[in-house]
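Researcher: Here's a chain I'd like modeled. Treat it as a single chain, no partners, no ligands.
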Amino acid sequence: MFADSNRWYFLAVFLLLGIFIYLLAPILTPFAISALIAYLFDPFADKLESWKLSRTLSVVIVFIVMTIIVFLILLVLIPTLEHQISNLIANLPKYFQYLSDNVTPWLREKFGLQTDIFNFSELTDLLKAHWNEAGGIAKNIVASLSKSSMVVVNWMMNIVLIPVVTFYLLRDWDILTARVGELIPRPVYPTINKLVTESNSVLSAFLRGQFSVMLALGVIYSIGLMIIGLDLSLLIGMGAGIVSFIPYLGAITGMVVGAITAFVQFGDPTYVVYVLIVFGVGQLLEGMVLTPWLVGDKIGLHPVAVIFAVLAGGQLFGFVGILLGLPIAAVVMVLLRFAHQNYMQSKMYGDEDEYSLTNKASDKKTKPEAKVKSKDKSKDDSKVKNEPKSD
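Model: Modeled as a single isolated chain. Structure tokens:
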């Protein structure tokens, strides 16, 4: 247990750290992104370093691999997504017409809905009615951005700064963590080290493991839908993979959107069955192969905690809060678990066995007294019976 002075010391440190992040949030974005990338790829650099390579050479190799991956995403994934998004926008009237002809009658019959909410012509008229206002807002935004050249300069600085900061953080990651560990007071170092290790386990289980599962599911869904011949295979597959950090939500969303898209595109219920098979196979692979292999037995963050951490971080600290929400949530969860364990072992909570023994002892004390009283009563009754009756 911490002493009272240590508790106030760490509380003051966390408070000052929060104020620091809040005040410097506008300029902390590239550093937060770089720290997140360095944290994710540090194990790969450590693995290369274990093969007798220098730390700098290991970081250079990892950095080259990361650069190649980014360029492949930019050259292959983004143009394909842009084509499929353009295809989606072009086919929106057909999708709305299908929903208007099939879903609207069912809603009208079941729920008494009188308005056709999928009428694309009404939606177009609504957009046209507000187009001037939207255009005025867009013009004001563009004008303000063009006047403020510092916005463009900040974006350019971030683009240049992120790779540089990532390289140096990744190269000196072990040194920085060791220096931070040296600052911890020695009496509380074992407890702090245990909490940091548990926090790292939880955070790595989600960031490295769950993100890998999300990416693998996105690839599996996209390839499966591409084999079927779905036009929006990459858009639907990767979208379902990204949302899959919430259990079953990604699969359910992909099934619904994929089934509607397949039926509208092909007009054959057989293709809807194919879509369901693709997502069913993906779920089987996730439960039997991907999650045990990539996440293992580590305890990850609960999906509700993930959503709350991201939203709360964004509300308090903006984009930096979104990046730091998950690490902070992992630390808070470990601290709450530590506090819960201490409470269960404290005198305030008590001991269930001791409580039951106390109750048994009290019962044993009361039972003989009851027997003695009953014996005395029986003796008195016998005396009354044996006394001679008076004439």
